[in-house]
Amino acid sequence: MVDLTLSEAELERHREHVTAFVREKVEEAGVDGAVLGLSGGIDSTLTAYLTVEALGEENLHGLVMPGAVSSEENMSDAERVAQELGITYDVFEINPIVDRFLDAYPEAQSDRLAVGNARARTRGVLNYLVANHEGALVIGTGNRTEAAVGYFTKYGDGAVDCHPIGNLYKQQVRQLAKHVGVAEDLAEKEPTAGLWAGQTDEGELGMDYDTLDAVLALHVDGPLSVTATARQVESASEDDVRRIRAMYERSEHKRSVPASPEPLQ
Q1: CB–CB of 82/38 below 8 Å?
Q2: Which positions of the chain have pLDDT values less than 50?
Q3: 3-class state of residue 251 by DSSP
Q4: Is 146 known to be catalytic?
Q5: Cα–Cα distance between 135 and 117 in angstroms, integer?
Q6: What pLDDT is recorded for position 81?
Q7: Which of 8, 16, 28, 43 is catalytic?
Q8: In angstroms, rounded to a whole number, what is the distance separating the alpha carbons of residues 40 and 158?
Q9: What pLDDT is stored for residue 188 in this prediction?
Q10: Choosing from 53, 77, 146, 161, which is the catalytic residue?
């Protein structure tokens, strides 16, 4: 497997780089604080730790937003992170809001993906409701791996003002989390977006994160061909590499400002 782990010196440089970035974005926006959705997962946990380091615990407001399929473990972990960091946080149940959407459009009731995305977008609306009211920035939790393959909801968890850990592959997120003091059980917990019952990130993506990271680093972000990548990453076939490339290309619209026609001459 391709080793993307960082040295202690590199981890410290990333820590300083991310915290400086958060301070810069808050200052540029002319606000004092930030709002962050806490899921109990490693991405939001690491982002919360680094945001507190950048701004102070008094300037981060956490939102815990359980839905119909959210696990009690994840929600308790989200509150645990808020309590460990000493930040103010609120718990908002999103299911009554999503139910109102489905009352308005019952045809989507059985569409697992559409309803899951509605849950993510409801959380995004609540993030901005609180942030606008408080004059704060919405901090995103997306990482490099998931952004590359479009594994996020457009205008949901992708609707934020900045992504502080957006340059880190998933295995580097875990590594930096341990470096800054996140508990081992949180850093190694199986990732899930919690969009429907039994959903796991790796199950939906069709491969483990270390393999996905390696394919992205060598082929999508790097110079190797499909064949050379599959040769280097034993856990990925050439078909796997092509599939990841296709995911990257299909999700380009999620990483870009919505398109407009070219100006007429």
Answers
A1: yes
A2: none
A3: coil
A4: yes
A5: 26
A6: 96
A7: 43
A8: 17
A9: 86
A10: 146
C-beta neighbour count of 109 within 10 angstroms: 11
Closest by CA to 169, choosing from 3, 36, 1, is 3
Tell me which DSSP letter residue 72 carries: H
Residue 264 is classified by DSSP as P
pTM over 0.85: yes
Q: At what angle do helices 8-29 and 170-179 cross, to 10 degrees?
A: 90
What integer pLDDT is reported at residue 70 of this predicted model? 57
**37 has which bridge partners?**
63
Q: H or E element: which one contains 96? A: helix 95-104
Residue 259, token pair as written in the block: 């398109």
Model confidence pLDDT, tens digit, residues 166-175: 999 999 999 9
CA atoms of 158 and 253, how far apart (whole Å): 12
State the SS3 of 40-58: CCHHHHHHHHHHHHHHCHH
Residue 201: per-residue pLDDT: 66
Q: Edge to edge, what strands does the sheet with 88-91 contain?
A: 88-91, 60-64, 33-38, 136-138
Q: For residue 197, what are its two tokens?
A: 């019952």
Residues 6+ apart with CB under 8 A from 122: 65, 67, 94, 97, 98, 101
Q: What is the pLDDT of residues 40-74, one digit of tens each?
A: 999 999 999 999 999 999 999 999 998 765 556 66
Other C-beta atoms closer than 10 Å to the C-beta of 188 total 12
